[in-house]
Amino acid sequence: MATVEVDQDLCVGDQICASMEPEIYEMRDDGLAYVVDGMEEIDDDDLIAAAKDAADACPVDAIIVEE
Ligand code: F3S
To answer: What function does this protein fulfil (predicted)?
Structure first.
């Protein structure tokens, strides 16, 4: 199990996360990324790996994935 969070205080709206993994991350009207409803806690190994890939790609390290 992993928890996924986006720190909107750090996010600069780069959109890499949402374009890489739209199942997990979405852009909202404020121009910032959020975790898609229901994806704050994920069990699936492939999804956890995908969440981490996007976290690694974020230029400002605004995404926190904790196992
Ligand atoms: Fe924001 Fe990083 Fe995604 S800056 S939009 S959390 S890639």
So the answer is: Ferredoxins are iron-sulfur proteins that transfer electrons in a wide variety of metabolic reactions.
State pLDDT tens for residues 3-40.
999 999 999 999 999 999 999 999 999 999 999 999 99
Domains identified in the chain, total number: 1
- Cβ atoms of residues 24 and 49 within 8 Å: no
Q: What is the CATH number of the domain that holds 44?
A: 3.30.70.20
Tell me if 60 CB under 6 Å of ligand 1.
yes
The Cα 67–Cα 14 span in angstroms is 25
The amino acid occupying position 45 is D
Nearest C-alpha to atom 1 of ligand 1 is from which residue? 11
ipTM for the whole complex:
0.98
Strand, coil or helix: what is 47? helix
